[in-house]
């Protein structure tokens, strides 16, 4: 086993060097130190799941053959090490004289160790993602003061430029770095860090550092702030020898340690969190020892919510207007406010929800926008309990209530929690679905997917399958259709794929989307993949030639989409699109269960990405929106929520259901095309009846149109529409037209006709107009609606009259009327027409009439129709009777003209 280690109390250069060394040699395991600086831990809290680090407790129990030390020349003992273990060192500090002679050491006098490792892998790694690039940039920026320290070299700048070109985020970097130090401060800061020691007193982490600064004239408090922020002890004490004596600078981040009392002991003062003292008479070493002796008297044990909460919290009532909430957020700077009714917490209003509501010019209240829930902690609750609650609820601000009265007495925030996180955190594991993916896809389709992933890797892009395919894969109901998202340039990737293989590309540059058309080339493409050895034999096939691959194993087209984020200029509008990360791309989706992504490129192949809690909701059977304005942004999601709920036998999550009801009136503002598109999908579902019944229950159909409804009669008829259509009805229409209707399209057409057939004519026309139903389907609906009303009047009519009424009715309209009728006589009329009456015709034709000397003209139609009606009504039964009737008709024609 090979491992990578760095120093304890790790900074960003140390952590980034772990990553860099791993990218140089992915066979080595990058092991996290047990203690890390505060900002490093905060970074890992947010982004750790996307990085390859290993907790030392998770190391396999195997011998260690090689240890790579980065950003340090001191090694700690790890189980599995022995005398045979080799040690390689990569560092930017001068080489120590006391290192073992058999160690391989590389040191360079540059700004950051990370730079050395970026130089080592940059020509060997095809792609790095945004989080990796950002962490590496943090390593360089922190140790070079954002490229401003005097020890910074041009090599550091080149490495930083490379990382920026590959997606490093300066916004994230800015969030985790502090202001640069002067040269004198840098020098003292390094000496203080070298001479720092950590003590654990009553469960609190106390850092004591000392140094000599007799020749320094710059202020020291900046160093205290930097050391406190980076190393994050519960208390920091700096002892510096100056011209005027020994300067004590004390900082505390815990209510358990009042540093002013410590400073007072040495003749100084201050407040609980910051204090100082100048000790004029005394040696630094003696003061150091005295400080260690007295500290147990001033440190209180344990950390509870009471120590990190803020008192007198800002609270909102449910009816607080969004404008007022925004003003308070701007004034006080808080990111979230508890919403309280009658002394009880009922939700949390976040800045994100407020900003989105204002951008849409919505006049809503806190109750409309809040994340609903009654989550609180008490002053005596532990930090671990607080962290679990924040993780489970997603709330970044938790109200604190009095244990006896229940009164809200404070608030504790995510920032408060980050300051008190323990030093030892496990990196969350990942789920890999590679085996499951390969078990469900046909070999040719899988081979094409892998070929696409390889090309994406060459282009330094990440490729993901996203959305419904991943959801259904986890639900063990896999489909063959998938959406592909590219963290990079989807259009460039598509063009290269067409160039490498075949097909043509259509693209939309505004949205960064491309469609790869391969329908006409699928046979060639399958053969090309097979010849290249990219298609693997199916299980139990003795060799590749025994495996059969069909061109239809491949899709006709493949859509590639550039990862993007969306903004809605106003409710119900189509979104404005900007390029974004996969995380932002997934956040624009409708529900958490559709935010899962499966990465395909490089060593990430098969990794499941779950940024928004989709896996948890999938396990719990919940349909949940990602934010409180989701239905406002796109009201068609209301219909989709019901569709997914009923398809999977899930439940719409309680708060999501609240938001759905609040937004349902907005369906009236959505275009008919978009509404119909969602209904089209519903009508094709196996459980479409359940979905439409649920829409009726939630009063959503009447929100689309006041007279649109669903009932049990419709549910019964809908089920019958899904059964195969009898041949006698399929034979009615134009063969070419009917051949273009697959079973799903037929069922969908019948569903629309049956849905509207009973409604008054005017109402039917209004709904057709509301849903912008296409002309062809509209004609069928109207024809069926009219026939539905006329059929009872034909019960006693002769066949010829019935035929005249129904023979021009479109086949699906006729069959829908047949299904809709519960009266057997009416059904028999329609069936008799379809099965026998429509085949009846006169034996004589136009040629016979011409042979009799009758001039062509409208009379032909009259004569032939009369003869046909006679056959239908039983007035003639053979050819002789037919001829007699013809002569009789001709005589009448002559007498009429005379």
Short key terms for the protein model shown above:
898 residues; alpha/beta; 41 helices; 44% helix
Q: How does this structure look, described?
A:
The chain is 44% helix and 15% strand. The chain is an alpha/beta fold. The strands form seven sheets. The protein has a seven-stranded mixed beta sheet with strand order 20-21-22-19-18-25-26. The chain has a six-stranded mixed beta sheet with strand order 6-7-8-9-11-10, with helices on both faces. Helix 8 links the parallel strand 7 and strand 8 (235-242). Helix 25 runs parallel beside helix 27 and helix 33 packs across helix 37. The longest helix has 19 residues, at 879-897. It is elongated, with a radius of gyration of 38 Å. Residues 422-429 and 538-547 have low confidence and may be disordered.
Compile the SSE list and pairings.
Blueprint: E1 2-5, H1 12-24, E2 28-30, H2 38-47, E3 66-70, E4 86-91, E5 104-107, H3 113-121, H4 130-143, H5 154-165, H6 170-176, H7 183-194, E6 196-201, E7 204-212, H8 221-231, E8 235-242, E9 245-252, H9 259-265, E10 269-270, E11 274-279, H10 284-294, H11 305-308, E12 310-311, H12 322-332, E13 336-341, E14 344-350, H13 351-359, H14 366-369, E15 371-372, H15 383-393, E16 397-401, E17 408-413, H16 414-418, H17 434-440, H18 443-458, E18 462-466, H19 468-474, E19 483-487, H20 490-500, E20 504-508, E21 513-517, H21 522-531, E22 557-562, E23 564-567, E24 576-579, H22 582-587, E25 597-599, E26 608-609, H23 614-620, E27 622-623, H24 630-633, H25 636-647, E28 651-652, H26 654-663, H27 672-683, H28 688-697, H29 701-704, H30 712-721, H31 727-730, H32 735-739, H33 743-756, H34 761-770, H35 775-790, H36 799-806, H37 811-820, H38 824-835, H39 846-851, H40 858-873, H41 879-897
Parallel strand pairs: 1-2, 1-3, 3-4, 4-5, 7-8, 19-22, 27-28
Antiparallel strand pairs: 6-7, 8-9, 9-11, 10-11, 12-17, 13-14, 14-15, 16-17, 18-19, 18-25, 20-21, 21-22, 23-24, 25-26
């Amino acid at each position: 086993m090979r491992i990578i280690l760095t120093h304890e109390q790790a900074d960003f250069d140390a952590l980034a060097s772990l990553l860099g060394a791993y990218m140089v040699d992915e066979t080595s395991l990058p092991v996290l130190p047990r203690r890390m600086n505060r900002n490093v831990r905060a970074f890992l809290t947010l982004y750790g799941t996307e990085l390859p680090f290993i907790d030392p407790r998770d190391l396999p129990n195997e011998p260690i053959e090689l240890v790579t030390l980065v950003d340090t020349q001191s090694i700690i003992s790890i189980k599995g090490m022995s005398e045979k273990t080799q040690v390689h060192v990569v560092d930017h500090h001068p080489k120590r004289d006391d290192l073992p002679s058999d160690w391989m050491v590389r040191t360079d006098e540059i700004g950051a160790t990370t730079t050395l490792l970026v130089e080592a892998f940059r020509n060997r790694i095809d792609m790095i993602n945004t989080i990796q690039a950002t962490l590496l940039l943090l390593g360089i920026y922190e140790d070079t003061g954002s490229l401003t320290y005097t020890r910074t070299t041009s090599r550091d700048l080149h490495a930083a430029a490379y990382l920026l070109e590959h997606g490093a985020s300066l916004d994230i970097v800015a969030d985790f770095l502090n202001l640069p130090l002067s040269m004198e401060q840098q020098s003292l800061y390094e000496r203080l860090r070298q001479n720092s020691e950590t003590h654990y007193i009553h469960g609190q982490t106390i850092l004591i550092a000392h140094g000599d600064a007799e020749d320094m004239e710059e202020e020291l408090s900046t160093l205290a702030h930097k050391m406190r922020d980076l190393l994050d002890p519960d208390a920091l004490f700096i002892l510096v020898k100056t011209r005027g004596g020994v300067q004590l600078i004390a900082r505390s981040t815990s209510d358990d340690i009042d540093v002013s009392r410590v400073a007072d002991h040495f003749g100084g003062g201050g407040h609980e969190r910051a204090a100082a003292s100048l000790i004029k008479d005394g040696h630094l070493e003696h003061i150091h020892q005295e400080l260690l002796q007295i500290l147990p008297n001033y440190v209180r044990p344990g950390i509870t919510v009471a120590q990190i909460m803020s008192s007198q919290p800002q609270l909102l009532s449910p009816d607080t207007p969004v404008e007022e909430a925004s003003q308070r957020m701007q004034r006080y700077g808080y990111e979230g406010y508890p919403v309280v009714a009658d002394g009880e917490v009922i939700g949390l209003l976040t800045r994100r929800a407020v900003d989105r509501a204002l951008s849409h010019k919505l006049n809503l209240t806190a109750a409309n926008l809040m994340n609903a829930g009654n989550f609180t902690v008490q002053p005596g609750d532990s930090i671990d309990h607080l962290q679990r609650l924040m993780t489970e609820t997603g709330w970044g601000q938790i109200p604190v209530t009095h244990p006896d009265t229940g009164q809200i007495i404070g608030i504790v925030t995510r920032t408060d929690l980050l300051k008190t996180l323990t030093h030892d955190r496990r990196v969350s594991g990942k789920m890999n679905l590679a085996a499951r993916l390969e078990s469900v896809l046909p070999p040719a389709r899988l081979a094409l997917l892998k070929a696409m992933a390889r090309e994406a890797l060459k282009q330094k892009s990440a490729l993901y399958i996203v959305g419904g395919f991943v959801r259904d894969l986890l639900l063990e109901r896999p489909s063959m259709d998938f959406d592909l998202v590219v963290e990079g340039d989807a259009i460039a990737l598509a063009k290269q794929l067409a160039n490498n293989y075949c097909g043509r590309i259509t693209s939309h540059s505004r949205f960064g989307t491309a469609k790869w058309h391969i329908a006409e080339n699928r046979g060639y493409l399958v053969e090309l993949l097979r010849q290249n050895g990219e298609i693997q034999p199916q299980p139990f096939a003795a060799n590749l030639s025994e495996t059969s691959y069909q061109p239809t194993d491949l899709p006709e087209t493949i859509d590639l989409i550039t990862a993007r984020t969306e903004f809605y200029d106003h409710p119900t509008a189509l979104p404005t699109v900007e390029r974004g990360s996969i995380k932002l791309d997934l956040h624009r989706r409708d529900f958490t269960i559709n935010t899962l992504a499966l990465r395909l490129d490089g060593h990430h192949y098969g990794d499941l990405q779950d940024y928004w809690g989709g896996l948890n909701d999938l396990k719990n059977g919940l349909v949940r929106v990602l934010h409180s304005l989701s239905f406002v942004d796109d009201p068609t999601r209301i219909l989709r929520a019901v569709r997914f709920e009923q398809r999977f036998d899930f439940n719409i999550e309680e708060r999501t259901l609240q938001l759905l009801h609040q937004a349902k009136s907005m369906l009236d503002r959505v275009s008919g095309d978009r509404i119909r598109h969602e209904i089209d999908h519903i009508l094709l579902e196996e459980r479409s009846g359940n979905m439409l019944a649920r829409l009726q229950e939630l009063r959503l159909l009447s929100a689309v149109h006041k007279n649109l409804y669903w009932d049990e009669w419709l549910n019964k008829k809908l089920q019958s529409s899904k059964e195969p259509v009898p041949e006698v009805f399929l034979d009615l229409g134009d063969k070419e037209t009917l051949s273009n209707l697959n079973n799903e399209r037929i069922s969908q057409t019948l569903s629309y006709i049956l849905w509207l057939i009973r409604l008054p004519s005017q109402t039917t026309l209004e709904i057709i107009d509301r849903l912008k139903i296409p002309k062809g389907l509209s004609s069928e609906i109207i024809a069926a609606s009219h026939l539905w009303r006329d059929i009872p009047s034909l019960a006693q009519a002769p066949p010829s009259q019935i035929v005249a009424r129904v023979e021009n009715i479109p086949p699906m309209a006729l069959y829908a009327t047949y299904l809709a009728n519960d009266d057997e006589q009416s059904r028999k009329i329609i069936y008799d027409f379809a099965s026998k009456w429509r085949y009846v015709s006169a034996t004589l034709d136009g040629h016979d009439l011409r042979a009799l000397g009758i001039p062509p003209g409208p009379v032909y139609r009259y004569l032939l129709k009369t003869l046909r009606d006679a056959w239908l009504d039983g007035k003639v039964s053979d050819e002789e009777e037919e001829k007699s009737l013809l002569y009789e008709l001709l005589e009448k024609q002559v007498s009429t003209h005379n």
